[in-house]
Amino acid sequence: MKKTKTSAAAAPRSTTTKPAAAEAPASKPVVAAKAVAASKPVETAKPVAAPKPAEAPKAVAAPKSVEVTKPVEASKPVAAVKRAKSAGPQPTVIQANVDVGFGNSLYVRGEGPGLSWERGVAMDCVRNDLWAHTIEAAAKPIIFKFLVNDETWCTGDDYVVEPGNKITLVPTI
Fold first, then answer.
1. What confidence tens digit (pLDDT) does each residue in 156-172 have?
2. Domain for residue 31, yes or no?
């Protein structure tokens, strides 16, 4: 006779399910969760504040004597602002555009503050062919003439410059 194998799939199934506690092995007891004490209130999550942006450097306080003026209406004419002249006379600048040769200097003699006809004043060499002399406090026109090494006079008439002006000349030596 033939033996037939019975498979588990062919076995009749039970329609009842076992409780979950029954599935745990009997040697391990089931541990219940700890209860929260009733005396402590449950805390809720606090909202997190947004990070503060980096602080800008503090501005310097404005001076206390700041005047606030009202805007001028368009229908009113605005007066022109007059600028006050600076105190004292302006300097007078005398320049000579001449090449006196290497090792030589240019001098000026004349009538005016710091000048005389007997002895010359050395001029400053600005560049190879430009010499300058500044007179600070002239009240009337300055009359002058150039000399090479304070010995050789330039040719021509005397020069004249008004106080507070700048003059550049090309003398003939």
1. 999 999 999 999 999 99
2. no
Q: Does residue 160 belong to any structural domain of this protein?
A: yes
In the structure encoding, which two tokens stand for residue 150, read together? 């304070």
Query: Which pTM was predicted?
Result: 0.51
**CA-based nearest residue to 106, from 134, 125, 93:** 125
**Pairing mode, if any, of strands 124-127 and 121-122?**
unpaired
Q: Where are the alpha helices (DSSP H) in the chain?
A: 20-23
Give SS3 for 18: coil
Query: Domain with 136 in it: what CATH number?
Result: 2.60.40.10
Number of separate domains in the chain:
1
* Structure confidence by residue, pLDDT tens digits, 107-141: 999 999 999 999 999 999 999 999 999 999 899 99
Q: Is residue 111 part of a domain?
A: yes
Is-contact 85 122, C-beta < 8 A? no
- Domain residues for 127? 92-169
